[in-house]
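Tokens help. One example:
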Amino acid sequence: MSLHLSTVILPYRRWNEGGRTAWTRAEQLGFRTAYTYDHLSWRSFRDGPWFGAVPTLTAAAAITDRLRLGTLVTSPNFRHPVTLAKELISLDDISGGRVTLGIGAGGSGFDATALGQDPWTPRERADRFAEFVPLLDRLLTEDTVSYEGDFYSAHEARNIPGCVQRPRLPFAVAATGPRGMRLAARYGQAWVTTGDPKLYENGTPEQSIQALRGQAEKLADTCAEVGRDMTGLDRVLLSGFTPDRTGPLQSLDAFVDFAGRHAELGFTELVIHWPIPDSPFAADEKVFEQIAMEAPAQLR
């Protein structure tokens, strides 16, 4: 099984001051997909420039032809399914059907309180996510949707003509818990993980591999429970959050070794961060480009 290589480009640069260049270069380098974070701000970037995901992806769609585009990840923290569906259908149309929606339950970061609400507990986030995903699925596949739920409502919401991709654009569902796994099995075209966050600070790469193996086994069990064929579900690792951190980007050989070990776990797509100087994602741009151009042939 081939392992596809993708990248994630954080929206911290003005479009005409390096932002545009990264997206066109990502296509030139042959990445399968270029994603961006869908946050209002994020961690150490909070006090600097940070732009919206959907406008950024719309601009990227206009200057690329083959590159798939997506979010890693969108969450209910500040999104509503009705308005999000309209934006996604528009983006899918502008891109000619090249959009993947990475979607997750969200966290307790800045997005959680930016609209003035108290941060939700993990259970509250899971409850909302369990309602958000099925409703969004309907909004992207049906012309007219009415719905009354515990958290979200839609009244004769119109979404004509729907997505270019049929029956809708693909969902890449980020999940490690049982409820999220069920959503991935039922609604996802891909499952996304960053590994076990408890291992990031003091864990080892070997412990991370074991944790990821355990997550993949839980996903397989969940798919079996809901009658889902695993062969139709891609498995995506967003790298940079395991104990390896940016080590795999230090050389081509280091990356191929890292990627190969995760391909053996059944991952079908590996996402690496576009280098950002003086950040947790700092890396040598020449090595990064070498990895993009040469690693895929070694991972087939």
Summary: The first strand starts at residue 4 and ends at 8.
